[in-house]
Specification:
- It is a single chain.
- It contains 13 helices and eight strands.
- By secondary structure, the protein is α/β, with parallel strands linked by helices.
- It folds into two domains: 260 residues, Spore Coat Polysaccharide Biosynthesis Protein SpsA, Chain A; 143 residues.
- The longest helix is centred in the last third of the chain and has 40 residues.
Length: 440
Amino acid sequence: MLSNVSPPSSPPLSDPPVRCRDGSVSFALIGGTAHTGEGPAAVEATVILPAYNEAAALPAVLNALTAVLDPCVEIIVVDDASTDDTAAIAHTFRCRLLRHTCNQGKGGAVRTGLRAARGRFIIVMDADNTYPAEAVPHMLALATEYDFVRCIRQHEPDSMPGINSLGNTLFDTILRLVHGLDGADHLTGMYGLRRSALDALDLTAARFDLEVEIGIKARAQGLRTATVPISYGARLGEKKLRAWRDGWHILWRILALTLLYRPGVAFGAPAVLLWALTLFAAALLTPSVGGASSPSLLVLALGLTAALQCLSCGLAAALYGTERGVPMGQWVRAARHPRVRQGAAWLGLLLVGAGVALRGVNAGDPWAAVLAAALVATGAQVIVVLLFLSLFAGAQERSARVMTVQGWGVVVESGPEPQPIRDGVAPAIAGLRSDDGLHP
């Protein structure tokens, strides 16, 4: 049991503490150190409990965890500036306590726990007694084969408010349609990831939008994912999630990550819709006899330019994403190819030339003037996008060559590989070994 573990003898936190807006230190670390990549050999996994005013539920949660976990699994309680006895209760258990002096939100509390965690597999679990501690050993067993283990709640009607259940279903649908996430319950508060995978995700969420950030980034990085069905009970104490306020935060996080991780959806779909509306409007403005009119041609020209601008923004977002570590899509890889860029350059010049020639031949024709202006604008935009693309492609190629010369390997276009985990001593995670066959 965890109560048999002696208190950590490591030095205090060495990293400079983050400060709140009022100047106060954001957290103090009690009984442990921040993660440095190496930890005590006895610590194979970490369970992080973000807690804000959880004095009513925390004793039951810690008692349940200590009953099922072995000494090689550490428990970290992150007190997010609670005003009740959360910290005092945590002091009575053999766990590591981290305290915020100002409230940082659930995401901020989890990220603080990640900095201090020493395990090679890290589990996050809400501290409100809604999640079963008995699921942790099953999650650790799955960690021998998977990078990301997510618990799916099987809840009774009285254990979750109807508005929360409806919101979960709505967000699951959006995540499936927009980001291609499989399964259900992507907002679950109980999940685990390998340390190496977590470090590669570069988490930034501060509130209850943390889970959607993890899900979207894990999908983009190609992490091997497993799910565990669990029972979900009624919480003890006051609920912290505010359905409408936190729902907007979650939705905003999904939309923001869509720009970076699914630029084809974020910009390509509006471009197609805009072009379809343009064709419809131009058809309405076209007289039944006599062919196209100047207004219809003007609408077509403006719609084509706007749609092309949307596609250009999508390409720029995709290129920026690769700079931020987002795996490169096939269409971006194709667009970076030298032959594609050369073809785009000739196409842009051809459009500009055609527009100039058309204007010269039909100088007095108003519809020809509109069409010529559209050709010149489109060709110029293609050339500008090409220059922008060449700038990013050249920088990425130079970065890849530098990595290869320094012996790092070309990692710009690939996701993180799972790292080997040293031999453990706990029966629940005895399979977490360096020879577990996880490397492709």
